[in-house]
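# step 3/5: fold
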Amino acid sequence: MRTEAIDPPGIDWLRVSPKYVTVRLAEWALGNLIVVALLSVPLVLVLAGVWTWPPVWLAVAVPALWLLLALWRLALIPRQVRSIGYAEREDDLLIRRGIFFQRTLVVPYGRMQYVDIAVGPVERPLGLCTLKLHTASAGTNAEIPGLPASEGARLREQLSARGEARLAGL
């Protein structure tokens, strides 16, 4: 279901690289491995006889419920990545994301203070980067993750040039 507030008519959204799913899966695996290990400590201590509380059923239920929730989030990752998009317009940049709670962010070129590119350890071998836009508003979370490095560099230069032109009043 499309709404004009989220998907303005006439916008051709550019999507991030499908390789970004791999980055999100790595983050998911690492984070959940740590959490499940921590949540399983009481189970190990109860089974070893070191603790008498919590009951075994509760010590099993907590990590099991977390694992079920994690698997549900795992199923959503590819769709979340497909929902991320951006569009360059004449006066601003649109950034779209979200499945259940959709969001479209409009960043006017004249409000951009600087454009930042970040590359993490999982993104680097995949040739991806994250483009971050900084504005005067501290609450602006304008970033486009999962861009191919060449597109990130092109977009950084393009946005910087447009931002400087708007600030100069050209």
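# step 4/5: annotate
Helices lie at 20-47, 56-83, 123-126, 149-167.
# step 5/5: archive (pending)
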